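Can't paste images in this forum, so I'm doing it all in text. The chain is below; anyone willing to post the predicted structure tokens underneath?
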Amino acid sequence: MSDSHQTTLNLKEMHDLSVLRMLAGNQRFVERMAAEDPGFFGRLEKGQTPHTLWIGCSDSRVSTDVITDTEPGSLFVHRNIANMVVHTDFNVLSAIDYAVNHLNVQHIVVCGHYNCGGVAASLEAAELGLIDNWLRNIKDVYRLHAAELNAIVDKKERTARLVELNVMEQVYNVCKTYTVQKAWREHGRPFVHGWVYDLKTGLLKDLAVNISGRRDLEEIYRFDVDQTIGSEH
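Text version of the structure:
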């Protein structure tokens, strides 16, 4: 039988219980919310006013709404492998632009997590395929902090530290964007933060990287400087 004449199977025929459980879970969610808050879906339908853009990892163990105990509508979320902010990735750049210029978020959080598969893979020499191009960005973070990381003997501890350093670098990458710097100049927002989620304890760790203006950036990355970079002050 040709592809154009194949019969479409329903989920029960495919015996895909995981998908059926999700659909059943959705039904329970709707029933629970209708009982607890009858106006919940009506409010969501009218639009979103999130206070924070969350840039996190795609890892299935890190469910943003769950670990922060926030309701739908509170967080505008972008996720990718190892919570990267790459200057050539128009996906994350568009998310930042929309969150800052149209949703008027007050905060941007870059959140990584310990035991991150993407970070661990970046430390290996194995060829993994297309993802190697993405992991190269994490390898660049390692190169920037090689002295510190190479001094850590335990591989697990070294990987955990790279998770933290990667979050810090992605925070700075957020701040290097024209979108964020323009918003700082015109509105005094957003505040950009770096956190790490600990899968073992369930707790978020604040890395104390909290940036609110271009004064925290190296001069070479600042837009609209008053004079030529490197000139005498």
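Strands lie at 52-57, 75-80, 107-113, 191-197, 204-211. The two ends are 76 Å apart (CA to CA).
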